[in-house]
Design a protein that fits this description.
Blueprint (H helix, E strand, L loop, with lengths): L4 H11 L17 E2 L2 E2 L3 E11 L6 E19 L5 E10 L4 E8 L7 E5 L2 E11 L5 E10 L4 E10 L37 E6 L7 E6 L12 E5 L9 E5 L38 E3 L6 E3 L11 E2 L10 E8 L28 E10 L1
Antiparallel strand pairs: 1-2, 3-4, 4-9, 4-10, 5-8, 5-10, 6-7, 6-9, 11-12, 13-14, 15-16, 17-19, 18-19
Length: 365
């Protein structure tokens, strides 16, 4: 079923806009250092060091060694703009090969690159036009060779096409989008590798859902060995989506959309693999807000071997299992780098917190 065009336009508008007033990158001046590493940029390989530039008190970064690279994933999307102006000041020796690599969608594939010329603290500008729809770009600065490569005042901002931005450029096409990537629900031809753009739950969205590349739905079933379940986001710039998963493969506390995904064969109304439903025990409820349902949540009633999701669910005060760490939207995480970026006044361009909420696959000791 296709939804009305006006409704989809309103939906798209609520999903887009993730820059800081058009600024795409954090720490454009390489000012934020966590010890001997950049705080806002991830070191891929080699090493970096803080260096002075042409301006006393204005520091830059040197890509140190014969093979070094740094990267930053940014949540910029086609709602922010499709033309991006990338600027930096470079001090590059002739025997150094330095490239600006652009990975649209942040899926690990370089879709565009620019080779920086030899320069003595020279300002450089690169305009790039990105094919819509897209969400997320990973910028990489990579250096090979023995020569010196020092960079400063790096930045990226969206530029309005109406103001002449990216005039005459061919749009960078990232190709088929992976599961969980934003997509145009009403497009005639899907941009998704799966060929399916579906509406999925998104509690932070205005209407409670968003459009994301999916693998299955009521009209597109999985093969007989799998069931259509919840596919967790694999990047902070992606959403949950519908994907084909092994039946009964998800433990207590994991997210779900149907009973068949869960080892317990119970997916709660909160969308969690659970240990009970209403009527199966005297008190069945979420172990934490939005969490899995267990018998006697937080009441210290669970006997040894009983299903639990927090220590307070057990008479012994000990729930054995894997710590369940989540972002604010419920997706699992190991560190904050796995979590979605803030929007609006809520720390744009910065990842949200990753916190321990309970226990996954727990049983009382």
């Amino acid at each position: 079923m296709r939804l009305p065009t006006l409704f989809i336009a309103l939906l798209a508008a609520t999903q887009m806009g993730n820059t800081d007033c058009g600024q795409v990158l954090r720490d454009s001046g390489f000012d934020l250092w966590c010890g001997d590493q950049l705080c806002a940029w991830k070191l891929e390989r080699g090493s970096v060091k803080r260096v002075s530039t042409w301006n006393a008190g204005d520091y830059g970064v040197e890509l140190d060694g014969s093979d070094a690279a740094i990267e930053q994933l940014t949540p910029v999307d086609s709602g922010d703009g499709t033309c991006i102006e990338f600027t930096l000041v470079a001090n590059v020796e002739a025997n150094a090969d330095v490239e600006l690599n652009v990975d649209v969608l942040g899926d690990g594939t370089i879709d565009h690159h620019e080779r920086l010329p030899s320069a003595n603290w020279k300002p450089l500008t690169y305009d790039m036009l990105i094919k819509a729809p897209y969400r997320g770009i990973r910028f990489e600065l990579a250096k090979t060779g023995a020569g010196k490569a020092q960079l400063a005042n790096i930045g990226a901002q969206t530029v309005r096409l109406e103001d002449g931005g990216c005039a005459g450029l061919t749009a960078i096409d990232p190709g088929p989008a992976p599961l969980g990537a934003y997509c145009d629900y009403n497009a005639t031809v899907s941009s998704c590798a799966s060929g399916l753009c579906g509406l999925v739950s998104d509690p932070d969205a205005l209407f409670g859902f968003t459009a994301a590349c999916s693998q299955c739905d009521d009209s597109h079933p999985c093969d007989a060995s799998q069931v259509c379940g919840l596919h967790e986001p694999t990047s902070p710039v992606r959403e949950e989506s519908n994907g084909c998963v092994a039946p009964a493969s998800k433990a207590l506390g994991e997210r779900c959309i149907g009973n068949a995904e869960c080892t317990s064969n119970m997916c709660s109304p909160e969308g969690r693999c659970s240990a009970c439903t209403t009527g199966t025990c005297p008190t069945c409820g979420p172990a934490w807000t939005g969490g899995p349902s267990v018998c006697g949540p937080g009441a210290h009633q669970g006997a040894t071997g009983a299903a639990c999701a927090t220590d307070d669910d057990c008479a012994t005060g000990s729930c054995l299992g894997v710590p369940r760490m989540e972002c604010s939207d419920g997706r699992p995480c190991a560190t904050a780098i796995d979590c979605p970026f803030g929007t609006g006044s809520d720390a744009p361009l910065q990842n949200g917190a990753c916190t321990t909420v309970g226990v996954q696959g727990g049983s009382c000791r």
